[in-house]
């Protein structure tokens, strides 16, 4: 397990050091490493449910979908920006907040290795099943079960934070980013998976851009609207996609039943990638 980015104890915020197969702080709190190398830093008292985040089945569905390569254009955009902005001469400390099974972080690491970039990568997700899957596929990345609301890293310890289709916690992102650190947010655009949504819902709500007014403490430096099409060739592929979207919980029963009857589906991906630079420290009261 990489240790160049020191993790903090979730109970008292002291640095964790590796002792045999455990991470321990000065107060004696210990967190065992799993066989695959990840560590669980989500205390029981911080869980809102017994098994928070994506289920084992949802993680498997997303992994199957992403391995088909349909979302590679998104990964390509992220890699292109990172390689253009940062120098291979300096270690790049990057944190993926809500990393899932690690698709985008693995893709980025592979590109950095190919271009001789020195990287220090950390992936965090609240789902133990997602982190378990991520750690089995890549042992060179630091994988952590934890929450974006309480990131177990020190102040100003990162150059880049990415949050892809996730739940951003801007106060925490600001805290862990160095001054002039970069934040990437990837969100769905107005037409994202519109064909799927038309099957699931009788009415499509108007698109609302929650970030249109900006983010306190950050300045927008680049924005890209990425739009492309792809096709799903079987009911199982369609169900795998559904399982990795919020629609698996939001869509009515009738819509999900209608989707089961679809054999093939051509879809539109409409994605907004926004890059911000940290310019001030924000607090909970802001």
Output the keywords.
single chain; 286 residues; alpha/beta; Rossmann fold; 8-stranded mixed β-sheet; 3-stranded antiparallel β-sheet; 11 strands; 27% strand
Percent in helix: 25-40%
Which shape, going by the Cα principal axes? Answer: globular
The count of β-strands is 11
Estimate the strand proportion: 25-35%
Distance linking N and C termini: 36 Å
List the domain count as a whole number: 1
Low-confidence segments, given as residue ranges, are none
What do we call the CATH homologous superfamily? Vaccinia Virus protein VP39
CATH topology: Rossmann fold
CATH class: Alpha Beta
Global structural class: alpha/beta
Strand order of the largest sheet: 4-7-6-5-8-9-11-10
Structure characterization notes:
The protein is of the alpha/beta class and 286 residues long. The protein has a single domain (17-43, 54-203, 213-278), classed as Vaccinia Virus protein VP39 (Rossmann fold). It contains nine helices and eleven strands. The protein has helices at 56-66, 72-85, 103-114, 128-137, 170-176, 194-200, 235-243, 247-250, 253-260; strands at residues 17-19, 22-24, 30-32, 39-40, 92-97, 119-125, 142-145, 158-164, 177-188, 218-232, 265-278. α4 (128-137) links the parallel β6 and β7. The chain is globular and about 55 Å long.
């Amino acid at each position: 397990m990489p240790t160049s980015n020191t993790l903090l104890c979730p109970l008292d915020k002291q640095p964790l050091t590796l002792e045999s197969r455990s991470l321990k702080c000065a107060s004696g709190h210990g967190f065992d490493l799993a066989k695959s190398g990840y560590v669980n830093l989500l205390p029981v008292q911080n869980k809102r449910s017994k098994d928070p985040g994506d289920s084992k089945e949802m993680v498997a569905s997303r992994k199957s979908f992403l391995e088909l390569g349909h979302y590679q254009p998104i990964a390509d955009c992220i890699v292109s920006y990172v390689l253009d902005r940062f120098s291979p001469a300096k270690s790049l400390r990057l944190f993926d907040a809500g990393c899932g099974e690690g698709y985008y972080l693995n893709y980025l690491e592979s590109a950095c290795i190919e271009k001789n970039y020195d990287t220090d990568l950390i992936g965090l997700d609240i789902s133990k099943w997602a982190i378990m899957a991520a750690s089995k596929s890549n042992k060179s990345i630091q994988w952590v079960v934890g929450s974006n609301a309480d990131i177990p890293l020190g102040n100003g310890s990162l150059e880049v934070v990415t949050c892809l289709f996730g739940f951003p916690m801007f106060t925490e992102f600001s805290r862990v980013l160095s001054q002039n650190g970069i934040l990437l947010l990837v969100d769905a655009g107005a037409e994202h998976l519109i064909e799927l949504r038309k099957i699931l819902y009788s009415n499509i709500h108007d698109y609302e851009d929650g970030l249109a007014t900006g983010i306190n403490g950050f300045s927008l430096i680049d924005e890209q609207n990425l739009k492309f099409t792809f096709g799903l060739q079987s009911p199982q592929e369609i169900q795998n996609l559904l399982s990795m979207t919020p629609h698996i919980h939001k869509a009515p029963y009738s819509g999900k039943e209608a989707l089961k009857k679809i054999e093939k589906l051509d879809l539109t991906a409409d994605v907004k990638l926004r890059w911000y630079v940290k310019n001030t420290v924000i607090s909970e009261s802001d």
